[in-house]
Design a protein that fits this description.
This protein has about 500 residues and is α+β, with helices and mostly antiparallel strands. The protein contains 19 helices and 14 strands. It is flat.
Length: about 500
């Protein structure tokens, strides 16, 4: 699920951007992100210890042994191709997670949790908008300092999301004093688990994981993890083979000191865009802003190439930059202001049709001669893109339902969508209205008003003035039918 703007624009850079050569950049020093104090020899190949064995030695959680675990074991065992893809993908990140768990004294079963959450896909997005290999929803991500803006979503950042997930799990373990309950809370929510524990306490029942009444998803959560734990512990028992993983970093951290196109970083590292995105999936746009993303992760060998090639690079490091809309604008007008086509502006900034760009929004645009400076940390960390419908303003109209009025008939009369009418009136699209019930619709200000009628099909009656100086009118929809006893809200 690679970001569209990155995929489409990273390969070529911004069309028509400045090509003024920049001052050569000094070679950065690659860093092991979990051991920054250790001097790295990028040719070192002595750490050939089996990483899976290290994971097994760190298991410290009590085992579950029930029918749900057996069911999940069979599920994985009958899908060897899926297990192979999942474990090979996870091999990129597992050493880093195990190092972090060891530092914190946490059980290594937790290193297997992304297998359950996302199949170790750092670009995974759920229907509930949970994102990244640890599956943070937006609000929880913000609670744990994972920035989500125009340029990046740290819920997908390998280092930041792992730090946040382990912080959260430690917090939950502190609350419940039990890793199984902590994991249930990670899946279901801490408040839900607290209430389930309280119910059992009040009823004099046990409060361990298997004794709580939980949703089916949470009931299956620990059995899934236990099944993966059993497969890692004894892969041959399930007819599965785990890929070789060695006890050294798969990736290194390379400092980014100037804004740089993703395409340039990919070229300097000598890797594919897909490989770059597996390690840096937080990028939302085709440019890396040094003020907001001070490092990128690169495969162990590619980091060496990157630091050799960067000082030799000639030409612009970045052909994209940030631009803030001075007022609410149509995309065509914004594109004209920054010297690009409307199609290109929409594509790189993910702007759908029939939307306006709200004043203060930050867009990615060609760097050009007037925008040569690197983007500030204020913009890099706080950029937002707010869009509003490109449609006439609406006014609220209240009307009284007749004997046969339905959501569909009102929608047809006012030429709006039945789903909208249902949402405005908190009902379903196939519902009928009770006679005399107040119905709310929103119509364009341009819609003409007509005198009040007794009902939609009856004879016209003269206008009347309601008490408290509130005038009751009817709004005549575009199809010419008069509406029943409507009240026009004056906005």
């Amino acid at each position: 699920m690679s970001p569209k703007g990155v995929d489409d624009a990273a390969a070529t850079g911004a069309a028509g951007a400045a090509t003024t050569p920049e001052v050569p950049v000094a070679a950065p020093v690659p860093v092991d992100p979990f051991r920054p104090e250790v001097h790295l020899d990028l040719d070192d190949r002595t750490a050939r210890v089996d990483l899976w064995d290290r994971v097994r030695r760190g298991f410290a959680m009590p085992d579950l042994d029930n029918d749900l675990v057996r069911d999940r074991e069979r599920w994985y065992a009958t899908r060897p191709d899926y297990v192979a893809r999942m474990t090979e993908r996870g091999g990129r990140y597992l050493f880093y997670i195990v190092e972090e768990l060891d530092k914190r004294g946490m059980p290594t079963e937790l290193a297997l949790l992304p297998f359950i959450e996302s199949a170790f896909n750092p670009q995974a997005m759920s229907v509930a908008r949970a994102s990244g290999m640890w599956q943070f929803i937006p609000s929880t991500g913000r609670n744990f300092e994972l920035k989500q803006n125009v340029f990046r979503d740290d819920r997908r950042d390998v280092l930041a999301s792992t730090r946040a997930a382990l912080d959260y799990l430690q917090k939950l373990h502190g609350m419940f004093g039990d890793w199984q309950l902590a994991l249930a809370a990670y899946n279901w929510g801490e408040g839900s688990v607290q209430r389930a524990v309280a119910r059992n306490q009040k009823a004099g029942l046990p409060t361990n994981y298997e004794s709580l009444r939980m949703p089916a998803e949470t009931q299956l959560y620990l059995p899934k993890l236990q099944a993966v734990k059993n497969i890692v512990a004894r892969p041959r028992d399930f007819g599965l083979v785990l890929p070789d993983l060695y006890n050294h970093p798969y990736f290194l951290s390379v400092p980014i000191e100037r804004d740089m196109d993703v395409a340039v970083a990919v070229k300097l590292a000598g890797i594919s865009l897909d490989e770059f995105q597996t390690l840096n999936p937080q990028m939302n746009r085709p440019v890396i802003l040094a003020a907001g993303t001070p490092q990128v992760l690169l495969p162990y060998d590619s980091a060496n190439r990157f630091v050799r090639e960067l000082p030799l690079h000639r030409g612009a490091l970045a052909t994209w930059t940030a631009w803030t809309a001075p007022k609410t604008m149509k995309p065509a007008d914004a594109a004209k202001s920054v010297g690009m086509t409307e199609a290109q502006l929409r594509d790189v900034n993910h702007i759908p049709a029939r939307m306006l760009i709200t004043a203060g929004s930050t867009l990615v645009v060609p760097r050009g001669t007037a925008l040569l400076a690197d983007v500030s940390s204020r913009v890099a960390d706080n950029a937002t893109l707010l869009l509003s419908p490109d449609s006439p303003p609406l006014r609220k109209v209240s009307l009284r339902a007749g004997r046969k009025d339905t959501v569909a008939s009102v929608a047809k009369r006012y030429k709006v969508n039945a789903t909208q009418v249902a949402e405005w009136n908190r009902t379903s699209p196939d519902a009928s209205f009770a006679t005399g019930q107040t119905i709310v619709v929103y119509v364009a200000h341009a819609a003409r008003r007509a005198p009040t009628t007794r009902n939609a099909l009856g004879p016209r009656s003269p206008p009347r003035v309601a008490s408290h100086a509130t005038q009751t009118r009817t709004a005549r929809p575009a199809n010419g039918h008069a509406a029943r006893h409507v009240h026009v809200a004056r906005n």
